[in-house]
């Protein structure tokens, strides 16, 4: 359902990176079942993997805050989930992030960053600049991965503290990692 | 709503009677209430270990219901919320329409006002048609309910976990009733539901 159309990829590097595979393997190992997302080019490889995996339910959202509420419901029903979004979606979530403190459910979000590291589009910069602080103000722990070889251990640490200790955590996947979007006419 | 309007529309249903009827034979159902009066209505019908009360997160009731429904596809999941709460989460109807969970029912108790904040008119008092919106989002079983007989029939249809998702807008009168304060400890509410479903705390 709802597979990505073949739009030109925003940030596709010349070779397929292996870190999205690392993330996928961790999500499988932690028995993550519901994967709500607002698409982002940096998550496209992971989204395709989830869409092709029967044990996981990919749930495209109209806005990121839906995903926070969905994961609270999933936990009440006995399932774990992860929310995939880009940095500009974090501001959309702010009130709904209250649920992480109210229900103390395992909340993990993987956020691809824009508005940093060679950004072309000034409209991405304000939210990208306040992404980490917005999470921290909302009581969410923030971890960051900037290099392909550290993604595995950072996401693994995040998943561990989320699912074992119900510590709500966001992993910021740096624009340095995914590559700055190239705008051409 | 003004008294004149009430007189023009004498057939509006009474919210507590509607919710009592909806939940009288709930069986295994998990019930999610939106913040505000709908949560009080659910509490007034009787506390239950499968009640998911919301005291905030406006606009999130349908998505919480969807998360439970996808996790527990064999159980009926019923979201009972108000028009203001539904309007704030309108995009979630598109998300539900895409996922098509057979066990999910969404009921809007529509009094056309924001009752918790002084009775200001909502969009459904004017131009917004939530039934049409739900249908246009791909929820083909979307209906307006205006009689208690229809409420009774719908309550029984909600037990069918294969024919959803379904959506109903029930026009109710806008009387402000005495609050029946549901439990508001989120950790307790979620742990209790998980316990009722056989899941341990971490």
How do you describe this structure in short?
The complex is a heterodimer of chains A (185) and B (202). Chain A has 185 residues and is of the alpha/beta class.
Report the total helices of chain A.
7
> What structural class do helix, strand and pairing data of chain A support?
alpha/beta
Please state roughly what percent of the residues of chain B sit in beta strands, choosing from under 5%, 5-15%, 15-25%, 25-35%, 35-45% or over 45%.
15-25%
- In this structure, how is the largest beta sheet of chain A organized? 4 strands, parallel
From the 3D structure, determine the CATH topology of chain A: Rossmann fold
Number of strands of chain B: 8
Please write the string of helix (H) and strand (E) elements of chain A: HEHEHEEHEHEHEH
Find the CATH superfamily of chain A.
Answer: Thiamin diphosphate (ThDP)-binding fold, Pyr/PP domains
H-E string of chain B: HHEHEHEHHEEEHEHEH
Mean pLDDT of chain B: 94
The CATH architecture of chain B is 3-Layer(aba) Sandwich
Question: How many discrete structural domains of chain A?
Answer: 1
Radius of gyration of chain B, Cα only, in angstroms?
Answer: 16 Å
Q: Helix- and strand-based class of chain B?
A: alpha/beta
Mean pLDDT of chain A: 93
Q: Please write the CATH class name of chain B.
A: Alpha Beta
Task: Give the number of domains of chain B.
Answer: 1
Can you give a write-up of this model?
The complex is a heterodimer of chains A (185) and B (202). Helices cover 39% and strands 17% of the residues of chain A. With 185 residues, chain A is an alpha/beta fold. In chain A, helix 1 packs across helix 2 and helix 1 (19-29) packs parallel to helix 6 (148-165). Chain B has one domain: Rossmann fold, CATH 3.40.50. Chain B is 38% helix and 17% strand. Chain B contains nine helices and eight strands. In chain B, the strands form two sheets. A six-stranded parallel β-sheet of chain B has the order 2-1-3-4-8-7, with helices on both faces. A two-stranded antiparallel ribbon of chain B has the order 5-6. The chains are: A alpha/beta (185), B alpha/beta (202).
């Amino acid at each position: 359902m709802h597979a990505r159309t073949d739009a030109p990829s925003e940030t596709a590097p010349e070779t397929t990176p292996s870190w999205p595979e690392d993330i996928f393997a961790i999500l499988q190992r932690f028995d993550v079942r519901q994967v709500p997302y607002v698409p982002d080019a940096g998550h496209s490889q992971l989204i395709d993997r989830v869409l092709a995996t029967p044990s996981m339910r990919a749930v495209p959202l109209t806005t990121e805050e839906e995903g926070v509420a969905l994961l609270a419901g999933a936990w009440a029903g006995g399932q774990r989930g992860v929310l995939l979004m880009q940095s500009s979606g974090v501001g959309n979530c702010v009130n709904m992030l209250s649920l992480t403190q109210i229900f103390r459910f395992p909340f993990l979000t993987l956020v691809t960053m824009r508005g940093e590291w060679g950004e072309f589009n000034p409209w991405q910069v304000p939210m990208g600049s306040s992404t980490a602080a917005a999470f921290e103000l909302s009581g969410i722990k923030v971890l960051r991965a900037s290099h392909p070889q550290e993604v595995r251990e950072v996401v693994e640490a995040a998943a561990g503290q989320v699912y074992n200790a119900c510590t709500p955590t966001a992993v910021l996947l740096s624009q340095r990692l995914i590559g700055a979007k190239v705008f051409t006419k | 709503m003004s008294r004149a309007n009430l007189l023009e529309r004498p057939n509006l249903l009474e919210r507590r009677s509607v919710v009592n009827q909806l939940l009288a034979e709930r069986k295994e159902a998990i019930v999610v209430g939106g913040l505000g009066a709908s949560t009080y209505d659910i509490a007034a019908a009787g506390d239950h270990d499968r009640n998911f009360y919301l005291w905030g997160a406006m606009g999130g009731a349908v998505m919480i219901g969807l998360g439970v429904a996808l996790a527990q596809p064999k159980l009926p999941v019923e979201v009972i919320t108000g028009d203001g709460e539904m309007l704030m989460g309108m995009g979630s109807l598109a998300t539900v329409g895409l996922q098509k969970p057979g066990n999910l029912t969404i009921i809007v108790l529509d009094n056309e006002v924001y009752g918790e904040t002084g009775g200001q008119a909502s969009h459904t008092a004017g131009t917004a048609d939530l039934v049409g919106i739900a249908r246009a989002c791909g929820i083909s079983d979307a209906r307006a309910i205006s009689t208690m007989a229809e409420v009774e029939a719908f309550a029984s249809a909600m037990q069918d976990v294969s024919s959803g998702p379904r959506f109903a807008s029930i026009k109710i009168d806008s009387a402000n009733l005495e609050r029946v304060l549901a439990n508001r400890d989120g950790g307790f509410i979620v742990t209790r539901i998980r316990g009722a479903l056989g899941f341990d705390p971490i």
